[in-house]
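wait is this the right file?? whatever heres the structure
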């Protein structure tokens, strides 16, 4: 993790989780990370492959050149990078492991380097899945960024063994009937 904003947000998130795998969404106090709010976002993870923004900071919206609320996170990325970022978001949400992603994006001034931090929230039955993150540019002056591409990524503190997905996946078998896949 290279960007100071990501280091600060990760330290806050890590402190809030304590001994748990991740903190609850309600544990995050916006006032405590006030100077970072412009770069912070929250994604809904109940629509795989889309991951709409539920909250998007003002600096993040300025970088994208538009309001991101309810827009797809995946659509920020170039078509060839979407599957990979969707897999990373799914792993962060289901396995509850943070991820750090190096990104380049196209702008009128040329390529813009960014660092993306993805942090899971603790899962609760019958509550929508979501995660938080921070997207921080290394250079200033870029706007209307597009065609994000992954340059590197890694999970932070990955577990020693593969985890069973933490999310209960809803499988719609018939109208009005829901089957929940659970932990064994």
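ok assuming it is, sequence goes like this
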């Amino acid at each position: 993790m290279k960007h100071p904003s990501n280091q600060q947000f990760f330290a806050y998130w890590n402190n809030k989780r304590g001994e748990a795998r991740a903190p609850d969404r309600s544990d995050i106090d916006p006032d405590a990370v006030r100077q970072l709010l412009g770069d912070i976002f929250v994604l809904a993870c109940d629509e795989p492959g889309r991951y709409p923004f539920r909250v998007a900071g003002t600096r993040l919206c300025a970088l994208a050149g538009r309001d991101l609320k309810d827009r797809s996170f995946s659509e920020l990325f170039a078509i060839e990078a979407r599957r990979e970022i969707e897999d990373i978001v799914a792993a962060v949400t289901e396995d509850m492991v943070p991820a750090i992603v190096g990104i380049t994006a196209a702008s009128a001034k040329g390529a813009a380097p960014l660092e993306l931090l993805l942090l899971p929230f603790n899962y609760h039955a019958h509550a929508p899945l979501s995660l938080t993150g921070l997207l921080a540019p290394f250079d200033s002056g870029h706007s209307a960024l597009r065609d994000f591409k992954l340059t590197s990524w890694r999970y932070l503190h990955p577990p020693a063994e593969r985890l069973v997905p933490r999310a209960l996946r809803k499988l719609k078998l018939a109208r009005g009937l829901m089957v929940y896949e659970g932990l064994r």
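Residues 4-180 form a domain with the Beta-Lactamase fold (CATH 3.30.450.20). so i think its the right one actually
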